[in-house]
Amino acid sequence: MTSATQRAREADPADPGEPGGAAPGGAVPLTEPRDGVPQPVTDPAELARVVAAFAAGSGPVAVDAERASGYRYGQRAYLVQLRRAGAGTSLVDPVALPDLTGLGAALADVEWVLHAASQDLPCLSEVGMRPTRLFDTELAGRLLGYPRVSLGAMVEQVLGLVLEKGHSAADWSTRPLPEPWLRYAALDVEVLVELRDALEEQLRAAGKLDWALEEFAAVAAAPPPAPRVDPWRRTSGLHRVRRRRQLAAVRALWEKRDELARARDVSPGRVLPDAAIVEAALAQPGTVEELVALRPFGGRATRRAAATWFAALSSASELAEEDLPPHSLPTDGPPPARSWASRDEAAAARLARVRAAVAELAERHALPAENLLPPDALRRLAWAPPPDAGAAEVAAVLRGHGARAWQVGLVAEAVAGALPEPPPAPDPRA
């Protein structure tokens, strides 16, 4: 089968109207799927044919999902895209077909190729699709040290093709989906397998393929994210809220907003912005009129629901002291690194030394420091190092904090050497 890369490059570069015409910088636009734009699969019988076709296909399967972040409540999938040799490209509508367990089972033993897999796996799992093996092209790009690792950037840098990305933030809950959106969705999986193959060769040449395979296995085996404790604490601007009574107001407004957003199936930020929640919690208005006088509550929809928001604020103001939320949740981890200097100068200095050691290793191996070692593992080690901080002891601590074998093998000795305070420099006057 002719690859998309070959097909694009064989197109007439002199004709800008042809798919594959030359783009600035020598990259070639990829504007049409090689098999045309498929229509979404919405019928069970049609889905059964897709399942059979993909089960009979060969090689890895490219998988992507489109959500409606910023428009709808939650992170469910509104379109699932797949492409596999021998099966072509299919776009499946999980609104019409919410149970894709059969499709997932047909691909259970197949390597899935995804870009930024951790973003799509939760919503794919919700519809019954979960890989046992995967190749993450974004993660591969990070391990190879690419400066830009979005799908469009990786396709351009590795394959010399330009993907049109104009619909990435669209409302994918729209029905029917416009034809340009379907074309965009099909192109997202058009060259994923080709990108995977090229990146695998680069990883092998760089001596990083085993690292990548270990990372991919960890992503595939990771359990679904657990529900957050006190999710309202992620309200943007919460750092401005200092008093527990004000925190209770944030909680009350956040929970009421979440209730309304879930019932309406809209993004919570469209019901009430975070800025309005924080402003109301800080101001503690005593009447509905005082609430709507606050600038973030000036919109028509917000004013219309002012009585609802004021009722939530009133419920927080009436709480007994013992029912107010604590300033922070208890944790088994170290405090925020920004507070270390005031709480434990030795730990702050230790963290600076081990960070520098990891940064130097990351630069030497041409990959981001956060991919060389999870920042949380590094902070936990620096805050509470083992009594005998040799390389073996450091390695055991890092493994206990979730570091992978390849990461431990690269950093344990350097980090162990950076943990002790260096001896004072000799006095040149002595």
Automatic annotation (TrEMBL):
GO terms for molecular function: 3'-5' exonuclease activity; nucleic acid binding; nucleotide binding. Residues 1-41, 321-344 are annotated as: Disordered. Residues 243-323 form the HRDC domain. It holds the Pfam family HRDC. InterPro entries: 3'-5'_exonuclease_dom (IPR002562), Exo_C (IPR041605), HRDC-like_sf (IPR010997), HRDC_dom (IPR002121), HRDC_dom_sf (IPR044876), RNase_D-like (IPR051086), RNaseH-like_sf (IPR012337), RNaseH_sf (IPR036397). One of its GO terms (biological process) is nucleobase-containing compound metabolic process. This is Ribonuclease D. It comes from Vallicoccus soli.
